[in-house]
Amino acid sequence: MASDELAKAVEPRKKGNVKYASICAILASMASVILGYDIGVMSGAAMYIKKDLNITDVQLEILIGILSLYSLFGSFAGARTSDRIGRRLTVVFAAVIFFVGSLLMGFAVNYGMLMAGRFVAGVGVGYGGMIAPVYTAEISPAASRGFLTTFPEVFINIGILLGYLSNFAFARLPLHLGWRVMLAIGAVPSGLLALLVFCMPESPRWLVLKGRLADARAVLEKTSATPEEAAERLADIKAAAGIPKGLDGDVVTVPNKEQGGGELQVWKQLILSPTPAVRRILLSAVGLHFFQQASGSDSVVQYSARLFKSAGITDDNKLLGVTCAVGVTKTFFILVATFLLDRAGRRPLLLISTGGMIVSLICLGSGLTVAGHHPDTKVAWAVALCIASTLSYIAFFSIGLGPITGVYTSEIFPLQVRALGFAVGVASNRVTSAVISMTFLSLSKAITIGGSFFLYSGIAAVAWVFFFTCLPETRGRTLEEMGKLFGMPDTGMAEEAEDAAAKEKVVELPSSK
């Protein structure tokens, strides 16, 4: 029995027809393009914004990094919105809000108006960053979930590449016009997304939470290899939602919904008084998101033009050309990762990725230190080392830590707290991103730009130890089986919630007929 369970955990289930699920995942993941585009376009637009608006380095790094803090509003609002009105309509919210933000930034006449546009766009980014991985994980069958849930990260990288290409395409426009066009054109993909969302079905797990079993069954039949697999997935989701096995029908009353105390109960289960298993899940998600950003990924991507300039490349066209190479590298290796996650597993890729990032950061710090010691001369080998190390770092990040963070976080949380749990993870990610982005220029002045990357390499080393000791392999497991990996009883969170509710003498479950 034990050997059978072990084999089941190690070997992915046989893949079925994932075409429909893939289309759904692609449509939902387009919400991630808006975050990627902003990251990429600001890398080049920042140079022109500084010249046109005559702002300081401190104002510039705040402008770049503040969007991550603003996105917190969208992340937590998105968790609440998605639980109330559904995952699909939440994607529409993300697209519309970012659309408005892009236009505000594009038509900004001063620094204050630009910051206002960043706030609106940041809320849209928070919505999109939270909902795309959650929806994709919930609609994907276990055998192909690793492949499909990398799509949000793939589209982030496509967005980054589009941002770099936008920099390159509009750099020759007049100074006052170029950066505004770069920012305003971000409204195009968000507008397209708002229209395409209505081709997507609703998440089957959200439908079950609302008692709409017939609708959930219809979606599962389209995303499963066989009717038997669809029935099995529906039974697992019903159990996770606290719906008795014998309770069936097109629309049913969900007992756990009334008993759980609504949103307060969700916060209690996840934050205020979690079980040891849920606490471990939360720590894993928050740690994973923290280390993804604390290892310097945003510094490399958002300040790539400044980084290469410090290495000795001074021509604007060459700078933008090299940053485009960064975007191409990210996109290529994230596509490679999509095919490896369900073959190699999450854990091996994560450890290899982080190890490669450590070496790359040390080499990058060394190259920048040498270049910094020879400001009046161009050290060719140091320039080459900086370019190679940057591309190496991007490749290792994109093949592991980049995509796995969203994949892993979207699949480990129990159903009742999944939206809030992912929002907490994204909050950790965005706060860390904001701190890194808004301190990089100041940190570089304090300990040199090379020293900054030596610091990031030390953080990445701590991350490797955390991943090795705290994160179990999840490949091939259904979402409803994840709790067992973190010590949750087979009965799952639904019965844990029932036991806790009974102790507190909350309202009894309504009888089912």
From TrEMBL:
Pfam families: Sugar_tr
Residue ranges annotated for the Major facilitator superfamily (MFS) profile domain, each copy included: 24-475
InterPro entries: MFS_dom, MFS_sugar_transport-like, MFS_trans_sf, STP/PLT_plant, Sugar/inositol_transpt, Sugar_transporter_CS
UniProtKB keywords: Membrane, Sugar transport, Symport, Transmembrane, Transmembrane helix, Transport
Main subcellular localisation: membrane
Membrane topology classification: Multi-pass membrane protein
Transmembrane spans: 20-40, 60-79, 91-109, 147-165, 177-200, 319-341, 348-368, 380-408, 420-441, 453-472
Family listed: Belongs to the major facilitator superfamily. Sugar transporter (TC 2.A.1.1) family.
Protein name per the record: Polyol transporter 5
Organism expressing this protein natively: Zea mays
Gene: PLT5_16
